[in-house]
Amino acid sequence: MASIVFEQVTKSFDRTAIIRDLDLTIEDGKFTVLVGPSGCGKTTLLRMIAGIGPQTSGRVLIDGKDVSRVAPGQRGVAMVFQNYAIYPTMSVRENIEFGLKNNKVPKEERKRLVESIGETVGLSGLLDRKPSALSGGQRQRVALARAMVKKPSVFLMDEPLSNLDAKLRVQMRVELIELHKKLGTTFVYVTHDQTEAMSMADTIVLMNEGVIQQMSSPAEMYHRPANRFAAEFIGLPPMNIAELGPDGVQLGFRPESAALSEEPLDHHLCIRGVIATREMLGSETIYQVRTDKQAYMVRSAEDRFEVDRPVYVGVPAEKLHFFGADGRRIDERSSDVRWYLEAARGLVYA
Amino acid sequence: MRNHALWEKLRPYVMIAPAMAGIVLFVVYPVLYLVRLSFYKYNLMNKAKSKFIGWDNYRKLFGNDDFYKSLVNTVWYTVGVVALTMILSLLIALWLRRSSRWNALVQAGIFTPHIVSIVSIALLWLWMMEPSHGLLNYVLQSLGLPTSTWLQSSKTALVSVIIVSVWHGIGYYALILVAALQSIPPSIYEAAALDNAGRFKLFFRITLPLISPQLFFVLVIMTIGSFKVFDTVQVMTDGGPNQATSTIVYYIFRYRSTNIGYSSATGVVLMLVVGALTFLYFRLLSRKLHYQ
């Protein structure tokens, strides 16, 4: 059990600062997901916690203790790597045991621990196999077992599911959520996949270009994105963004907030366009509606609209988001929103 | 129809025939011919006077003290060269594993002896090892260290030849091991760091097993090569002093014109020894290797 605190942390590679003066607190016992596009610095943050890519300046505290000078193996953290980083020359048992041996855990206890962890992750019959004789999913479990057996106070995971096929990934996602619930330890999970972030996180830390864009619960991030970047990164398809007026204010709405109709709608915002593409996904259909200015994505339960047919897209006022010229969210309680709502109405038949 | 089926059967053999012809002509035939020669008292001047003498050459060989001396020299030479080269090139490889411009430069420097002819190198060292005027003794003396007789005494001659061979080969083998070390994913070391592995454990449980295939390759190739050492001996010592550096191949060379049958018998024995040793290596070590 431990919280993690970054204080004024900077990390540079070859004199290029990837992360500059970053402050962040990761709460004890929470499942925190660091998410963002590749190169945003999320893995760099994770490696700083682990101590395998220490910060250039600033402090990292685990459980209130400055670990800047503590070796990775002494920090009480365990990590699951993207490529699993299993020791290829050791058997599954030796892989899981290696950390325990280094920490001078007695033989009897080691045996007991390895076997019980093997049971937990479903590797019981495979303990004496070499990693080369395992499937991708099984290797993933070895990596997980190797981390779990050390009973760390912090679990670090660097895109652990990205090498699995889609089905296994969804299954492992559920297992990780259950694991977190069972262990109750701090999980820090890095991914570039917003679906993974949304489905597993207690707290999402959204990053871009080394800067934290928003840190909040998945629901908050979805319903009240702090800026345009958050609005467009979270959600699939991303939020539709349209220019609103000369002062650079932009309007946004989620594809699932919009209604489609062949007749004009009396929603607050109503846009006429033509269906350009149609993706039928089973329970829902995603349409791309093109106006003469731009295209909007609309997610609908109905699949009756056909390509090249004119349609109306309607969005209720409470589902509209506004972003200032700097990209930041304009709070719906702000007095200016009334004006923007008026302006949005002006977009009718645009 | 039957013709067609026949062709289908023959085709693979016809396809590999040219390559097989080459192997038979240049590998199988010379080896068999060597074996055949070893059973003859061969007359180079007049082929008609050659005669089959059965195991005589072998009997003579195994009754000759000089042969044993050469064999023992060769074994010591091999042990010395293989052990020293492997340890030193591994240490150098560990030192050069991080790829940087400086390391690349050093690596190129260490590799350079490999592209120089061994004859030139042997001559150079011969000159440096000259006891009274050579560079090595001069340096030792100015450092206040005891000097050596190098190639001129039967006590130090073999060691001197070993030094030259090690110096010559080290760059090449270090290069192979550097490549092996660099192919180990860094995340393995990061995982080991998180597993609290000490330097000693890291080396013996992670690094060494991961480069074991390359180490094994170096071991086999160097053992075979060292057993066949000739050029350094020929240039530097002529097998002397007092046969202290005479090796098996040098022994073969000595009888090349006087008794080619005897020479061939020695060659066959060398072939069997090297073959047996390689077989032994594979039997003893192959289970300890970790191919990925």
Automatic annotation (TrEMBL), chain A:
Segments forming domain ABC transporter: 4-234
InterPro entries: AAA+_ATPase, ABC_transporter-like_ATP-bd, ABC_transporter-like_CS, ABC_transpr_MalK-like, ABC_transpr_MalK/UgpC-like, Mo/tungstate-bd_C_term_dom, NA-bd_OB-fold, P-loop_NTPase
Superkingdom in the source lineage: Bacteria
Gene Ontology cellular-component terms listed: ATP-binding cassette (ABC) transporter complex, substrate-binding subunit-containing
Keywords from the named record: ATP-binding, Cell membrane, Membrane, Nucleotide-binding, Translocase, Transport
Gene Ontology terms for molecular function: ABC-type transporter activity; ATP binding; ATP hydrolysis activity
PROSITE patterns attached to this UniProt entry: ABC_TRANSPORTER_1, ABC_TRANSPORTER_2
SMART domains named in the record: AAA
GO biological process assignments: carbohydrate transport
Protein name per the record: ABC transporter ATP-binding protein
Organism, scientific name: Cohnella xylanilytica
From TrEMBL, chain B:
UniProt xrefs under InterPro entries: ABC_transporter_permease (IPR051393), MetI-like (IPR000515), MetI-like_sf (IPR035906)
Coiled-coil regions, chain positions: none
GO cellular component terms attached to this protein's record: plasma membrane
Source organism per UniProt: Cohnella xylanilytica
Bilayer topology term: Multi-pass membrane protein
Protein name as it appears in the record: Sugar ABC transporter permease
Family statement: Belongs to the binding-protein-dependent transport system permease family.
Organism phylogeny: Bacteria, Bacillati, Bacillota, Bacilli, Bacillales
GO biological process: transmembrane transport
Domain ABC transmembrane type-1 per the UniProt entry, residue ranges: 71-281
Top-level taxonomic group: Bacteria
Keywords, sorted A to Z: Cell membrane, Membrane, Transmembrane, Transmembrane helix, Transport
Residue intervals passing through the bilayer: 12-35, 75-96, 108-128, 157-181, 202-227, 260-282
Subcellular location per the Swiss-Prot or TrEMBL entry: Cell membrane
Main location: membrane
